[in-house]
Automatic annotation (TrEMBL):
Superkingdom of source: Bacteria
Major site of localization recorded for this protein: membrane
Taxonomic source organism: Microbacterium faecale
Upper classification of the organism: Bacteria, Bacillati, Actinomycetota, Actinomycetes, Micrococcales
Protein name (record): Succinate dehydrogenase
Subcellular compartments: Membrane
One Pfam family recorded for the sequence: Sdh_cyt
Gene3D superfamilies from the UniProt entry: Fumarate reductase/succinate dehydrogenase, transmembrane subunit (1.20.1300.10)
A GO term for molecular function: metal ion binding
Amino acid sequence: MNASTLDAPRTPQRRKGSNFEKWGWLYMRVSGVLLIVLIFGHLFVNLMVGEGINAIDFGFVAGKLADPFWQWWDVLMLWLGFIHGANGMRTIVNDYVLNTKVRAALVWIIGIVAALMIVLGTLVVFTFDPCIGVTESSALWAQCQA
């Protein structure tokens, strides 16, 4: 093949090893479907069940975060959402940032920020204690004494 010959359009380029872009593309589709189920389930329970939106207050959130089912529901939503968003931002950066060093720096920043937010969010969900800092003058005093 000489320099003036081009491959036919859509000729598959075979590379050895894992195809990160393919897995990223597949992740976006699967996580998108799961996020739709998780988000609409979250909205339905919070806005439609029981007293609806009128029931949402600190006690409602504290009650949900005390239940392991809802902890894992929220953590799964958090993880999928942040990774989905970070992967989307990575794709945008790869498409539009031409300078390779700037692109690499931005992709690293996106990954670090997403990882940090996932860790912090997970810690909040699993270590949430509504009784920290409650005093006798607080409205939560009676519930925290039980």
